Amino acid sequence: MSDATVAGADAPDSLDRIAADLLALKEANPISYAEIGRRIGEQRVARGVPAAAAYPPRSTVYDVFRAGRTRIDPDLLRDIVTALGGDEAEVERWAQRARQLRRPTEPTARQRVAPTAPPVAVSAPADIDRFPGAQQPRWWSPYLLLLGCVVLNLLGIVVVQALHLPIHLDMAGTATASIILGPWHGAVVATAGNLLGFAVGAPGAAPYALVNLAGALVWGYGVRRWRMGDGIGRFFALNLLAATACSLVGAPLGVFLFGGLSGHGSDTVTESIVTMGLPLIAAAFSSNILTSVIDKVLTGFIALMAFVWLHRAAGFPASHMPLVERLSATPGHPPPSARL
After folding, report:
1. What DSSP string runs through 79-137?
2. Radius of gyration over every alpha carbon of the chain, rounded to an integer in angstroms
3. Quick one: which H or E segment has residue 260?
4. Sorting pLDDT into bands at 50, 70 and 90, what band is 330?
5. pLDDT value at position 265?
6. Cα separation, 135 vs 314, whole angstroms
7. Can you tell me the distance from the alpha carbon of 41 to that of 34, in angstroms, rounded to the nearest whole number?
8. What confidence score (pLDDT) does residue 140 get?
9. Rounded Cα distance, 310 and 312, in Å
10. pTM, whole model, 2 decimals?
11. On the CB side of 324, how many CA atoms lie within 13 Å of its CA?
């Protein structure tokens, strides 16, 4: 990126000029607004910002490229230029432009002098204002979501016990919190849900918090660091990976604590495998893996639908999971990221 791209040496600067130059930089590095938001989120998470607050809505990113603004946040501008591939020196030059235009004497000068180059018109996507990602969740929304996810885990335990199902369904809340808020938020739900198992008649659930925790980390890091939320196939593979991780933790726990038969509905699967001639321990491992695959795939897609609904209804950011943005698009109106 040349200095001429940032600003002409003999031309007065303005917010419109920054927006036009920034758009030119984006066109030279063609990525979508959603991808810029995802990269910004990753930068902020790496700096220690909680994942729930790190990912900006697409509309916030888009607005920086729009002419007619009255202010530009220098910190956000730094993040955007970094996401577009700028080095530290270039990033600082952009931020310095924004800081200079925030000086008290600058607004009057900007109003008197029109930019030498007309601002490039950026047409807003037709559904940008009503696309759910353009909203910001309330400050208390993550806390309410965490509480709801714990309740969802406990509800799964109740349903499985009442119907004697051979699966668990005690991790839907864990998966939901992990893919929306991050792995360690999911870990909080995982731990709380299992430790509160006694409240719904499942005191034996407490040791299995380790299994729940393994799933939280796989789902949470899977959609953020490994980009396994980019498409339906990759998300399906993520659920299989979660199932494998949970089995590697859960099967030894079940054998060590209960000898392979814990009184859960999955014991019927274990006993069926024993009748095939396998030792009880081997049957317990086989049963755990089989039921875990079914359970975690079902759990993962319950969490996915919950994320889609919360993205639409409450504005939870989904820049880190493009699959949710696509599924959230109004029928007949593809999401902006799909058109850019």
Report:
1. HHHHHTT--HHHHHHHHHHHHHTTSTTHHHHHHHS--SSPPPP-PPPTTTTTSGGGS--
2. 25
3. none
4. low
5. 63
6. 7
7. 11
8. 81
9. 5
10. 0.63
11. 32
**Token duo for residue 244:** 């494998």
* Contact call for residues 254 and 270 (beta carbons, < 8 A): no
Helix, strand or coil for residue 154?
helix
The conformation of residue 330, written as its DSSP 8-state character, comes to P
Token pair for 115: 């930019």
More confident residue, 257 or 337: 257
Q: Would you state the structure tokens that stand for residue 23, as one six-digit string?
A: 């758009």
CB-based contacts of 329, cutoff 8 Å, min separation 6: 127, 131, 335, 338
CA–CA distances in Å: residue 109 to residues 66, 103, 226: 20, 11, 47
Q: Does residue 50 contact residue 89 with C-beta atoms inside 8 Å?
A: no
Q: For 47-70, b where at least 16 C-beta lie within 10 A, e where not — what string?
A: eeeebbbbbbbbbbbbbbbbbeee
> 133 and 127 in contact (C-beta within 8 Å)?
no
Q: List Cβ neighbours of 102 (8 Å cut-off, separation of 6 or more).
A: 71, 74
The string of DSSP codes covering 195-252 is HGGGGGT-GGGGGGHHHHHHHHHHHHHHHHTS-TTSSHHHHHHHHHHHHHHHHHHHHH
